Amino acid sequence: FPQNVRDMSFKEGKELKVRVKPSDCCSNFSINIGHDPDNLALHFNPRFDFGHDVNTIVMNSLSGGSWADEQHEGNFPFTRGEEAKCYINFNMEQFYIKLPDGCMINFPNRLGDVKYDYFDIRGEAKVIGIKIK
């Protein structure tokens, strides 16, 4: 079930820190940032074993309910049952995601905005904490 954060404003230049704990049998979870469920600037989806993907991070954007092209990341520093921290920053051009192992990945800010108010986490992971600073 989605764990929705309301009245959250994530602006360019701020950092979002997300602490999640994937369940012991987690197939995948996602962190979604955008304007609403049909307009996501960032869909960050670590997949332990989902569809054809095993230990892969899939990122995408959703505009007007239509998915764009997926971007796949082979580095997978997530473990079932263990808490993980991700840090997300962005500007008009890019999202910058610092993974739990300290590696940085990025994803284009295809919606091109400098402020997003919609945020949710879906899938088999418990939210331990969320901070914007």
TrEMBL record:
GO terms for cellular component: extracellular space. This is Galectin. The lineage of its organism: Eukaryota, Metazoa, Chordata, Craniata, Vertebrata. The gene is lgals2b. InterPro entries: ConA-like_dom_sf (IPR013320), Galectin-like (IPR044156), Galectin_CRD (IPR001079). PANTHER family: GALECTIN, GALECTIN-1. GO terms for molecular function: carbohydrate binding; galactoside binding; laminin binding. Residues 2-133 form the Galectin domain. Keywords: Lectin. SUPFAM superfamilies: Concanavalin A-like lectins/glucanases. Pfam families: Gal-bind_lectin (PF00337).
